[in-house]
Design goal:
One of its GO terms (biological process) is protein targeting to vacuole. With 668 residues, the chain is mainly α. It is built from 34 helices and no strands. Among the domains are: 89 residues, no CATH class; 88 residues, Leucine-rich Repeat Variant.
Length: 668
């Protein structure tokens, strides 16, 4: 049999780690025998061991009555063990709590040491019923002669008010008196309790404002000043006059205090209390922002975080002041701490306006540049495109994409760029050609699955801004001529969706093209077979529109010397479109069929027409009527295709009827 002390129990647990459950079962049996002893010393030792086991997760609810017995001991060292066990094991449903009311009242009128341990116990085990029964005694204890008892009573009264709110009606007067207590600890405890109580209904505590203001201007206790300022932050929305009254002392604290915690609480109270509004709050706002900017530059990560969080709340009212520290804020976007990076992005998003949008976007975009880029400045869109559109030699090896951040963070950066620029329907953008370049740059450097959003914004932007369409078409031609996206069409992070937008824009606004026939080679190149089927369908669709526009231009400035070029282009188009005959995608099949039908009809007409160069006029007339239906079939095919304008189709029909221009030999 092992000794009956707690130390021996702990030693035994350490010595029996291999069979701990068996050892504890034996120990609990021993404790059950000891706890029934009439020897209070032995009973208290058993309760103490049982409390230790309860801390390890073993239930001691079966010994609740024995705990109350130890609590009633006249000896302080035994009573403290009983209260410790009660604090550790009792809860709101413990049935023996109803037996403790008289015991607690008796201990509250005992010696100061007994009162102290009792107040501590009450704050942990109080229930609504105990709060109702003990509140008069606790309120009376607020006038105890000893300061530490008054302080403990105030804190215990808070726990009673939480469980039994009606106690505040009688206790509030005494708490107000304690704000003028001679002991600073009692005053601090009172301020702490009032600050916590005011969270639920601050309006009820407005009458305390004069006394709290006096403490704010006279106290040197930083901890208590923090609580007072928090309390004023909750009160000021209900009393506008407090704002003007509080501005001078809070400004003085912000300017002079070396305590960072107090400084931040002053700034936070100014924000939530509306003290930065109006002309009188402008100087205070500038002071607050300068202090927060210093926090951002501090090595302490916690200070950086709370400073960024506070600046986000100041931006709506003073964006121009926050913008003065733009470089400092943007430096946090690349911080090692992900939480700081996210708060910095929130702040950057909130501070963006027409004046600083371009610089913000360029700097955020620079964080997405692929590893290995030596320059710290992101190249312009023109430079980026020039790098990507240089024809690659067969032996050239593309650099491996190594993201500078995790994919998740790169995705957040990319989405923030799009959100910042598109907010309020592109209200902050003054140069839409610049933003088109940004979208293309983002597609190249994002290396995350953001292509669909870039596609949507490209199409939306070009549709809204007519003045930017020529530049957009020029930009999209360069994108289509580059194999960066088409080579990785199966990779979700390749942003291949931008090709969908590029093809659609070039087809829809083909009148802005300078060399339509050249674009046809990009739209129908063999490597587009690697792309998604919906992108291929748009490619074929756009190719039909571009070919129609090109044919219209030729019809208006026809010359016999153009026929070889026409022949080569038509043959190339028919040959490359036929590569999609086996496509499993129904939309690709449909558009390929309509495209082939239209070009085949035109070619049949040309062949027939060339055979008539020596026939009589009557045969030509007959052929005119026969081919009329063929060209109507061609026109119908174009119209069924869906997007070619009626004017373009009529010009195509007119082109096919220019007999004199088509009397050429060698047509195949």
């Amino acid at each position: 049999m092992w000794e009956r002390t707690l130390q021996d129990l702990i030693r035994g647990l350490r010595a029996n780690k291999s069979d701990e459950s068996k050892f504890i079962a034996q120990a609990v049996d021993e404790i059950r025998r000891e706890i029934r002893s009439k020897d209070m010393e032995l009973k208290a030792a058993a309760v103490l061991k049982l409390t230790y086991l309860d801390m390890m997760g073993y239930d001691m609810g079966w010994a609740s009555f024995n705990v109350v017995e130890v609590m009633s001991s006249a000896r302080f060292h035994l009573k403290s063990v009983g209260y410790l066990a009660a604090v550790q094991s009792f809860n709101q449903d413990t049935d023996v709590l109803m037996l403790t009311t008289n015991l607690l009242k008796k201990d509250l009128s005992s010696t100061p040491s007994d009162i102290a341990v009792t107040l501590n116990g009450i704050s942990h085990i109080v229930t609504p019923d105990l709060g109702r029964d003990l509140s008069p005694e606790l309120i009376a204890m607020l006038n105890h002669s000893r300061a530490h008892i008054r302080k403990r009573s105030i804190l215990a009264l808070y726990k009673v008010i939480v469980k039994y709110p009606e106690a505040s009606q009688n206790g509030m007067g005494r708490l107000r008196e304690k704000l003028e207590d001679q002991d600073s600890g009692v005053v601090a405890a009172t301020v702490n309790v009032l600050c916590e109580l005011a969270r639920k209904n601050p309006r009820d505590y407005l009458p305390l404002a004069p006394q709290l203001f006096h403490l704010l201007t006279t106290s040197s206790n930083n901890w208590m000043l923090i609580k007072i300022i928090k309390l004023f932050g909750a009160l000021s929305p209900f009393e506008p006059r407090l704002v003007k009254k509080l501005q001078p002392p809070i400004t003085d604290l912000i300017s002079t205090t070396p305590a960072i915690s107090l400084l931040y609480e002053c700034v936070h109270t100014c924000i939530i209390g509306g003290m930065l509004q109006g002309a009188s709050g402008y100087a205070l706002a500038r002071t607050c922002i300068s202090k927060l900017a210093a926090f951002i530059q501090d090595a302490d990560q916690n200070l950086k975080y709370i400073a960024l969080l506070a600046m986000v709340k100041i931006v709506p009212s003073h964006p121009h002041l926050v913008a003065e520290y733009q470089e400092t804020i943007l430096a946090s976007v690349d911080d090692q701490d992900i939480s700081i990076r996210m708060r910095a992005l929130d702040l950057v998003s909130a501070m963006a306006n027409r004046d600083n949008l371009q610089s913000i976007v360029q700097q955020v975009l620079s964080h997405l540049v692929r590893a290995g880029t030596s320059s710290s400045i992101l190249p312009t869109a023109a430079q980026s495109l020039a790098q990507h559109t240089v024809p690659a030699s067969p032996t050239s090896v593309k650099p491996t994409i190594v993201p500078t951040q995790s994919p998740a963070y790169r995705l957040v950066l990319s989405q923030r760029i799009l959100d910042i620029c598109s907010q309020s329907t592109y209200d902050n953008i003054v140069d839409f050609e610049w933003y088109l370049s940004v979208l293309v740059d983002l597609a190249y450097v994002a290396n995350v699955n953001i292509g669909s959003k870039i596609r949507d914004q490209l199409v939306d932007l070009v549709g809204r801004v007519k003045a930017a369409r020529r530049y957009a078409v020029k930009l999209m031609v360069k994108v289509l001529s580059d194999d960066t996206f088409s080579g990785d069409g199966g990779d979700e992070s390749s942003c291949a969706e931008v090709l969908w937008a590029a093809a659609w824009i070039c087809g829809e606004y083909c009148s802005e093209l300078t060399e339509p026939q050249k674009l046809l080679t990009y739209l129908l190149q063999p490597r587009i077979a690697n792309l998604a089927q919906d992108i291929i369908a748009v490619y074929i669709h756009a190719a039909t529109k571009v070919f129609g526009f090109w044919a219209t231009e030729l019809a208006q400035r026809w010359d016999d010397d153009l026929l070889p070029e026409i022949r080569n282009v038509v043959d190339m188009v028919i040959e490359r479109v036929s590569d999609f005959n086996s496509s499993p995608h129904i939309e690709v099949q449909e558009r390929r069929t309509l495209y082939s039908c239209s070009h085949s009809s035109g070619k049949i007409f040309l062949r027939t027409d060339l055979n008539l160069k020596t026939d009589s006029a009557s045969k030509m007339l007959l052929h005119h009527h026969s081919t009329q239906s063929q060209n109507h079939g061609f026109l119908k095919a174009c119209i069924l295709f869906g997007h070619c304008s009626l004017h373009t189709n009529l010009i195509l029909w007119h082109l096919l009827h220019k007999r004199a221009c088509l009397y050429r030999t060698g047509w195949i």
